[in-house]
Structures are given as structure tokens and as C-alpha cells.
User: Which sequence fits this backbone?
């Protein structure tokens, strides 16, 4: 049967997918035997949103990109009416065609197996694709220890950043004394520039819920919490629906699937604090306190939420679990490198041509992700660096693009795997400004408990700010290095321990940029506003646009004659540069 | 944003359950738009949680506001992807259009503007959110256009 689906995740909706959906509803209703119109999550091709998929009765699937409401009429008339797919709009087909075929075909989808394929608000669709079979298998096997061993053997490492073996964490929590234990799903996704977890929760919430129930069975926990950030209203909405549906079907609640095991899940909304992604701070927050990390040990596995043994895992970690149970540890650990198994989802953003979600086997290189899958750099600019691991991570320069994706290789560069945010930078981006940006973030988000994290990051931010504003002093680089070492060594939690990483990696790979700011008072990327000089070239036609735009009257000239900027008056606001239609204003 | 559904604290059993504090504050803020002093005192009286502790929590989390906000809350993303895609220029344009700096509310109480760290729409950077709706791929002028739609009542 013919089916039309529209990707309705936050990214799709932001690009206007709801309007497309409404237009399709109206259009399809006018057809004699209207095909089914359905909502799905996100396939990950965010750069092509709004996305519409038509699957014909013969099973071939056609994915169309950038389908704004005005294109709906032609799409339906030609594809469904005349049976002629519109080749120009096709981005992917299951038959191997479409402009961006490589984007999906080069991926290996385990976590994203259902994303974009099923209706996230329908438990029936999840079940139809094999959902909750893993839970059934686990309950029937009655062997929690065997289950823990399978997880260990699979080699799955936590996808929240630190990369701890999930099975080991489960084993420690299972062995910890106590009858009351907890499972927590960390859906705080605080790394600015990362959206993998949001997308999984919005597109396939049941896979995460099923993963949690299985984890509960493995460690002997009756209760679980999902801590999700408040900035993700759609994820919260779909999780709420998923939890209610799972309860209704007896996958959640007392006596799951006729067994004696019970499991209940509660949703906790975060309240906007990055540090609450840290596991001990997150538990403080669930307990209703200020989210401040505490010393470990004791680790959550022995003393976690409400002082009870707790296993906390990331969204992506849980989404892997049902797949591993069904397909076995071998299927998972045959993918990847010696110490990093399986796949990793990356959120591609920044100056990348095809930004969105990609899931790739560990061991693939950064170059393959950026160029072979995501089509390289936007506007054919030069690839400069990728930022991995967010505020805790670092910038890997283009020269190291053959670095492979595994925990250890990434660590060697000074960055970290992190949760999977990958922000691509081109030559227009100033690395000193990027370092300043991250320090501004960590300085603001520091909970204030450790002196060096609270004050040291502030001092680092001040130094970075003055460098980008042309006020850098001799010895500033050394001062940054000294402060970085102290903040790293005297902070309690990962936030402070890793906060200097963006500065250290940019210093390591882009030191000359710092030096240019300091000694020549110039920003090589032409980004730092205060270090720019604007001049008018001979291409000026004397249209007077810039003269009118200048708020301080620094530009003079007559109509049809080349204008001039009085540098003494210029406040380098850049307004003239923006209004000039001829590109006759040069910045240096 | 304004549900006008009054929260009945008396029905909540929260003796010893400090875990309820954050959800309670979230609910109070959803109903009133911000955390009113009287509300916090009410929570203190009914729960026994010290007022200082309640304020400690309320000021720790970025979500909580102790000042009223406008009818529309515009949150411009200043996350990494948005930062490298012109978020600063976007905010400048919006601030200039509305005539108030970041963190403030317009005199007519229509708009409050804030920055946030990431809206999870990074592949559509720069992004912003107005109440529950997210907008992506914005130029500074496109952002101002969206704001104008709200001002003219074409969107709400
Ligand atoms: C400052 C800070 C922020 C963190 N934020 C997150 C986050 O947003 N999501 C997440 O899953 N883990 C985050 N973590 C890691 C958690 O502390 C924890 O290691 C993780 O949730 C464990 O799950 P995993 O083993 O599945 O990775 C953060 C850690 C630190 C130090
Ligand atoms: S960085 Fe702006 S939406 Fe993520």
C-alpha cells in the first residue's frame, strides 16, 4: 500500500514541516483512494528538511528534500498521479538513486535503526519493527547475569562522554548490596552543538524505554528516571506518550510480561544547568537540590540516587541495548576497533554542507565523515578544523583529518569523543574566538564549588577576551597555559577538569593565530571585529549606501565617486561592509 | 504559557520529599510566568523546605526567573553551531529591532529576549525559539521578520 510520510521532529518543524504536512493532508484528501499520510521522526538529513517520503506499493521508497507546501501539489500529481517520480527533488531512494544517496548508504544504523522509518507516537509501529522482542527474550531467559555478560562481551561503552564499559557498570550496580536500586537515563544533552539524543528521543523513544527496562532487569532495579532537558519540549511530549503506551501494554509496571519483575519510569525535566549532565549533579537535581557534583568514590553504582545503588547511562547507550540483546554481542563487537566497538552517532553542524545526524562504525576517519558522507565544507571553503566533545573537548585541525574515530585516537589529539557533537569549522572562523566562546560557556556554567573552576575559568576568559579585542599582553599565552593546568588539576568534576581543553588544543594547533592577535593585533580569519580595518576599494560606484549606513559619519564622498573611511572616526561596526552590494569594502 | 490552572499544594504529599521542589517551581513558573515571592513563601509553608533553600535552588537553575517576562519569550541560541553561524549578529538585530538589550522585556510587555546554550537544532543554525516554536536557518533580517509577525498578531 502506498504511504506518504513527513519527518516531524524539531528540526523538521523548524524548517516548516508542519505546514507541509497540512498541505499534504488537504491534497491527499482530494484523491480518489487517498494513501496513508503519516508522521515520522528524523532520518537525520536535517539539511534537506522538510522531508517527505513516498513508498509505493511495490516497496520502493522515495525520499524528497526541501518540500515546502508550494511543492506539494506537483509532487503528488506527478509521483502519485502520473507514477513519475520527480528526479530533481529526490535525495534518496531505496533503489540506490537520489542526489544525496551517499549520505545514508555510507552509514551503519543501529541506534538510528528506526529513526525516520516509524511513527514515534505509535507503539504498534515500534513493535512491528521488532520492538520489545528484546525485552521478551530477556524475561524468558531469566538470566540477568548472562545478560550482563552479553553487555560486557559486546564491548559497548557509555556514549555520554566518558566511555565506561556499560556491562561493567551494570555488574557493579547488580553486585552492590541493597534491595532498592535505580536506573537513570541521562538525557540532559548539554553540549551546545549536539542533538543526537534529542533526535533519538523524538524519533524512536521506545528504543530508549526498552533499553532502560532491560537495564532494570539486569541490575534488579524497580524504578527508573529519565532526566531530560527542558529545552526539548517535543522529546518530553513523545517520551510521555511512549511511557504511557508501554504501561498500557504491560511492558512497564508491575509484573512485566507475566514475570515477577516490576519497573516504573518517571520523567524529570531539567531546569537549565549544564553541570547537571554530570552524574552526581544530576542526582542532586532529581533530589530537588542545587545541582552540584560531589566527590566520587563512592560511585553511583554503590551510592547514587537517594543513596541507593544506581546505574546511570546515556540515551544513545540505552538505544543500543535492545539491538545487542536481539543480535548478540558478536554482531556488535565485530564492528569498530580493538577498544571501541559498535557505532557512534554524530551530530554534524557548523560549516558542513550536509548537516544532520550520521551513525558510523567506529574506526572510520574524520575525513570520511566530513567529506564522503557529509559532502565537505559549505560554499567550497577551506576545511580548518572540527570541534569534538563540546566544552570538554577540543579542536582537531584539518591536518589530522585521517584520525580514526575511537576513544583512544581522539584522546591523543587532545580532544575527546564526547557525546558526539561535531562542529565543522572553515577558514572564516577564528580559533581564539572559539576558545573564548567555550570559556565563556564553562565560566557561566561552573557550579562554583571549586575555586579554580569558578575563578580560574573567569580569569582565562578575561585573558582570551582581551586578546580578541586587541588588548593582549606579553606573556598572555603562558598565563593561559599556567591557569589551564591549575584549573584541570584542582577541579572536582569533569566540567572543570576538561574546561581548559578548548584553549589547550587551539594553542597546540593554532598558536600562530594567538600570536597574530597578540603581536600584530590582527585576526587572520578576519573575524574579531575590534581588530579589523575597513577600507573602500576602487570598485566603489559612489552609491552612498555605506555613507548613509554609517552611524558615526566616518564615511565621506560624493555621488558616483569613490568614498573614503576616516579611520580615526570609524568604530569598526561593520555596517558599511554589510550594506555594500558591490563588495567594494575590504576588511583586513 | 498561562494555564490559569491553580496548583493545589495541599493535595501534594511532600513531607520529606524534596524531590518535588523543582517540579513545583516549574509548575509555579508555568502558571505565573515567573517565580513570585508569595508563591515561594507558600511552597515554603506547605512543604517545610526552608525559604533560603528554595531561593538557593531557584537561583541555581537558568530556567527560573524571579522577574516577570513578556507575552512572548524569545530565546536566541548561542550554542557552538549557532555561534559560528552568526548568532551574535542575529541577537544584535533582534535587540535593535525591539529596542531592549538581552535579558530584558519591552515596555509594552510583549517581548522578553534571552540567549540559550543550544536548542538542539544545530544543523539549522542559527536558531531561535519563541515560546514553544523553533525557527532555523535565520539571517538577522529573517529573525526580525519572524518577530514582526508576532508583533502584528499574525502568529501567536
Ligand atoms: C560537566 C559534565 C556534563 C555532562 N553532560 C552529560 C550529558 O549531557 N549527557 C550524558 O549522557 N552524559 C553527560 N556527562 C557524563 C555523565 O557524567 C555520565 O558519565 C554519563 O551519563 C554516563 O552514561 P554512559 O556511561 O552511558 O556514558 C557529563 C559529564 C560532565 C562532567
Ligand atoms: S547550537 Fe544552536 S541549536 Fe544547537
Assistant:
Amino acid at each position: 500500500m502506498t504511504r506518504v510520510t513527513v519527518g516531524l521532529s524539531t528540526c523538521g518543524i523548524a524548517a516548516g514541516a508542519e505546514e507541509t504536512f497540512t498541505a499534504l493532508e488537504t491534497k491527499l484528501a482530494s484523491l480518489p483512494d487517498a494513501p496513508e499520510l503519516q508522521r515520522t521522526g528524523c532520518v537525520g538529513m536535517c539539511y534537506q528538511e522538510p522531508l517527505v517520503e513516498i513508498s509505493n506499493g511495490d516497496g520502493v521508497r522515495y525520499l524528497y528534500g526541501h518540500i515546502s507546501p508550494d511543492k506539494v501539489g506537483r509532487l503528488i500529481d506527478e509521483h502519485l498521479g502520473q507514477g513519475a517520480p520527480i528526479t530533481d527533488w529526490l535525495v534518496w531512494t531505496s533503489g540506490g538513486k537520489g542526489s544525496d544517496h551517499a549520505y545514508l548508504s555510507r552509514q551503519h544504523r543501529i541506534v538510528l535503526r528506526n529513526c525516520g522509518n516509524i511513527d514515534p507516537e505509535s507503539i504498534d509501529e515500534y513493535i512491528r519493527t521488532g520492538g520489545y522482542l528484546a525485552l521478551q527474550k530477556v524475561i524468558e531467559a531469566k538470566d540477568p547475569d548472562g545478560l550482563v555478560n552479553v553487555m560486557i562481551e559486546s564491548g559497548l561503552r557509555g556514549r555520554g562522554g566518558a566511555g565506561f564499559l556499560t556491562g561493567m557498570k551494570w555488574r557493579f550496580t547488580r553486585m552492590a548490596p541493597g534491595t532498592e536500586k535505580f536506573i537513570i537515563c541521562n538525557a540532559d544533552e548539554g553540549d551546545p552543538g549536539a542533538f543526537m539524543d534529542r533526535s533519538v528521543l523524538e524519533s524512536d523513544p521506545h528504543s530508549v524505554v526498552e533499553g532502560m527496562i532491560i537495564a532494570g532487569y539486569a541490575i534488579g532495579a524497580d524504578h527508573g528516571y529519565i532526566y531530560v532537558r527542558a529545552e526539548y519540549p517535543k522529546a518530553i511530549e513523545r517520551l510521555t506518550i511512549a511511557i504511557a503506551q508501554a504501561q498500557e501494554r504491560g511492558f512497564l509496571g508491575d509484573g512485566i510480561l507475566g514475570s515477577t519483575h516490576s519497573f516504573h519510569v518517571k520523567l524529570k525535566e531539567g531546569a537549565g544547568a549544564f553541570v547537571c549532565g554530570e552524574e552526581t549533579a544530576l542526582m542532586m537535581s532529581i533530589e530537588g537540590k542545587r545541582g552540584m557534583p560531589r566527590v566520587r568514590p563512592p560511585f553511583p553504582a554503590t551510592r547514587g540516587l537517594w543513596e541507593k545503588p544506581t546505574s546511570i547511562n546515556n540515551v544513545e547507550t540505552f538505544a543500543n541495548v535492545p539491538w545487542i540483546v536481539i543480535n548478540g554481542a558478536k554482531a556488535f563487537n565485530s564492528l569498530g576497533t580493538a577498544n571501541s566497538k559498535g557505532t557512534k552517532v554524530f551530530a554534524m553542524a557548523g560549516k558542513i554542507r550536509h548537516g544532520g545526524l550520521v551513525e558510523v562504525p567506529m574506526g572510520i576517519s574524520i575525513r570520511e565523515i566530513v567529506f564522503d558522507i557529509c559532502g565537505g565544507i559549505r560554499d567550497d571553503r577551506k576545511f580548518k578544523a572540527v570541534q569534538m566533545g563540546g566544552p570538554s573537548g577540543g579542536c582537531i585541525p584539518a591536518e589530522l583529518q585521517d584520525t580514526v574515530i575511537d576513544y583512544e585516537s581522539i584522546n591523543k589529539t587532545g580532544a575527546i569523543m564526547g557525546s558526539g557533537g561535531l562542529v565543522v569549522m572553515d577558514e572564516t572562523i577564528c580559533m581564539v574566538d572559539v576558545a573564548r566562546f567555550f570559556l565563556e560557556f564553562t565560566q557561566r556554567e561552573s557550579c562554583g564549588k571549586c575555586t579554580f573552576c569558578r575563578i580560574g575559568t573567569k580569569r582565562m576568559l578575561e585573558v582570551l577576551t582581551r586578546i580578541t579585542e586587541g588588548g593582549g599582553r606579553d606573556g598572555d599565552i603562558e598565563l593561559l597555559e599556567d591557569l589551564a593546568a591549575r584549573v584541570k588539576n584542582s577541579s572536582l568534576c569533569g566540567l572543570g577538569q576538561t574546561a581548559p581543553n578548548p584553549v589547550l588544543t587551539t594553542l597546540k594547533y593554532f598558536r600562530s593565530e594567538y600570536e597574530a592577535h597578540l603581536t600584530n593585533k590582527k585576526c587572520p580569519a578576519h573575524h574579531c571585529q575590534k581588530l579589523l580595518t575597513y577600507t573602500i576599494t576602487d570598485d566603489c560606484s559612489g552609491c552612498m549606501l555605506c555613507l548613509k549606513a554609517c552611524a558615526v559619519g566616518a564615511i565621506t564622498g560624493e555621488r558616483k565617486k569613490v568614498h573614503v573611511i576616516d579611520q580615526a572616526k570609524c568604530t569598526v561596526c561593520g555596517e558599511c561592509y554589510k550594506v555594500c552590494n558591490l563588495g567594494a569594502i575590504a576588511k583586513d | 504559557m498561562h494555564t490559569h490552572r491553580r496548583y493545589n499544594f495541599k493535595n501534594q504529599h511532600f513531607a520529606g520529599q524534596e524531590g518535588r521542589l523543582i517540579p513545583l517551581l516549574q509548575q509555579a513558573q508555568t502558571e505565573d510566568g515567573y517565580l513570585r515571592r508569595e508563591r515561594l513563601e507558600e511552597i515554603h509553608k506547605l512543604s517545610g523546605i526552608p525559604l533560603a533553600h528554595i531561593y538557593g535552588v531557584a537561583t541555581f537553575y537558568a530556567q527560573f526567573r524571579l522577574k516577570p517576562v513578556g507575552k512572548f519569550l524569545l530565546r536566541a541560541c548561542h550554542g557552538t553551531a549557532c555561534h559560528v553561524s552568526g548568532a551574535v549578529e542575529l541577537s544584535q538585530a533582534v535587540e535593535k529591532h525591539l529596542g531592549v538589550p538581552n535579558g530584558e522585556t519591552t515596555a509594552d510587555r510583549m517581548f522578553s529576549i534571552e540567549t540559550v546554550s543550544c536548542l538542539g537544532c544545530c544543523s539549522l543554525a542559527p536558531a531561535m525559539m519563541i515560546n514553544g516554536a523553533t525557527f532555523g536557518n535565520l539571517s538577522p533580517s529573517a529573525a526580525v521578520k519572524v518577530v514582526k509577525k508576532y508583533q502584528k498578531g499574525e502568529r501567536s
Remarks:
- Chain B has a mean pLDDT of 87.
- Chain B touches chain A at residues 17-23, 25-26, 56-57, 60-64, 77-85, 116-125, 127, 129, 132-137 (CB under 8 Å).
